[in-house]
Each structure stands twice: as structure tokens, then as C-alpha cells.
């Protein structure tokens, strides 16, 4: 990536999501299922601490409550 002064910079761990803004948004039921699927698939495989997720230097305590 280059800044306005045309100096090149390296960006590590850059994540980009490209979305077609012409597509209609999914309805609330479909969106909720999609979000639930993503969360379920990103849970740690280690079942010894299923409600704790480590992010960097932080341990996050996750609630098991379903608020549907």
C-alpha cells in the first residue's frame, strides 16, 4: 500500500471483505441463522473450556444463553 507521499508500506494480517452492494440483504431469519452458523463454526475445538475464548492477551468469557 502507498501513502499520499508515494511511500510504500507493508500491511500484515489485512482482511478485506468485498460485498456486492446491489444484492438485497437477507431477511432477519436468514441473517440470524448465518450469524449463528459463523459463531458455532468458530468455537474452539477444545471442550475443556468451551465458554472461554482467548483473543490476544485477553480471555473472553462467552455466555451460553440463546437470546432468540
Explain what you see.
The protein has 68 residues and is α+β, with helices and mostly antiparallel strands. It is 21% helix and 12% strand. Strands 1-2 form a two-stranded antiparallel ribbon. The longest helix has 14 residues, at 28-41. It is flat, with a radius of gyration of 18 Å. The model has no long low-confidence stretch (mean pLDDT 79).
Task: Spell out the blueprint of helices and strands.
Blueprint: H1 28-41, E1 52-55, E2 58-61
Q: Key features?
A:
single chain, two-stranded antiparallel sheet, alpha+beta, flat, 68 residues
Average pLDDT score: 79
| Poorly predicted regions | none
In percent terms, what proportion of residues is strand? Answer: 5-15%
Spatial strand order of the main sheet: 1-2
Subunit organisation of the chains? single chain
Rg, please? Answer: 18 Å
Globular, elongated, flat, extended or rod-shaped: what is the shape?
flat
Distance between the termini: 42 Å
Annotation, overall tally of beta strands: 2
Largest sheet: 2 strands, antiparallel
Structural class: alpha+beta
Give the number of helices.
Answer: 1
The helix fraction, in percent, is 10-25%
Sequence of secondary-structure elements: HEE
